[in-house]
Amino acid sequence: MRIERTDFVAVPVTEVGRSARFYGEVLGLDKNPNSLEDWIEFETGNLTLALVSAEGHGREFAPLPRGSVALRVADLAAAKAKLEAAGVECGDTWDSGVCNGFSFSDPDGNGLLLHHRYAPYPDGTKP
Fold first, then answer.
1. In this structure, is residue 127 part of a structural domain?
2. Labelling 57: which of 49, 78, 94, 113 has CA 20 to 30 A away?
3. What is the CATH number of the domain that holds 22?
């Protein structure tokens, strides 16, 4: 078996409409037009985030842990300011030695983070 790529990450939510507004309006992600009522997909460029109604799919809701989905941005300070202006509580900005970032949560408590990579990748390519 050879895995070709990761296509999507399922993000469990309790209220699909509320979460869709957050991912579309606050984060500014593009909604996939093929989305369903209880499975709404947002495109990030290289991975799809699928907002999935836990209850609608026979599962008990449990949010993803802190930092489960890392989204890269070009301007970390501007992104943080936009989230805070929208009322999102953001963690402190950290520096890992290769990128800066901060964590936050979606309306259901799913752990997300935004980061900006400033160091070259292991293969020498620049971010």
1. no
2. 113
3. 3.10.180.10
